[in-house]
Amino acid sequence: MRGRHEDTFAVLEAGAYFVTESAAHIFRNLQMTGHGSKLGRKMALAIVALLTCRNTEEAAKSVGVSTKTLLRWQKLPEFGKAFREARTATFRQCVARLQQSCAISAPN
């Protein structure tokens, strides 16, 4: 049986929504391995959940942590930095896709 975070990742991998496609890419980039890594798998999933869920409570539930834990993580400098980078990357990717779709649909 799969855990909550595997289900969240599976939804992201499926690309059900445009934002989740971007978030899945960001999640893969956030995963750090090795002894000195600052963000664990759940923290990386939390960043993706914060980008894709409607509120903090929903994001915490989808990752399998309490809202209090997620709020505490948001106060950590390394988490905040990773979240800002992920949000910026997602925004840039959205703008680029919008620009592409406008260029394709614009009459000559």
Keywords:
mainly alpha; 108 residues
Kindly summarize this structure in a few lines.
With 108 residues, the chain is mainly alpha-helical. The protein has helices at 4-14, 18-30, 41-52, 56-63, 67-74, 77-105.
Report on the architecture of this protein.
The protein is mainly alpha-helical. It has one domain (4-105). The chain is built from six helices and no strands. It is elongated, with a radius of gyration of 15 Å.
Mean pLDDT over all positions: 77
β-strand amount: under 5%
Number of helices: 6
Largest sheet: none
**First-last Cα distance:** 53 Å
Number of E-state strands: 0
Looking at the chains present, what oligomeric state does this protein adopt? single chain
Globally, the shape reads: elongated
**Structural class, from secondary structure content?**
mainly alpha
Order of helices and strands: HHHHHH
Chain-wise SSE layout:
Layout: H1 4-14, H2 18-30, H3 41-52, H4 56-63, H5 67-74, H6 77-105
Helix pairs in contact: 1-2, 2-3, 2-6, 3-4, 3-6, 4-5
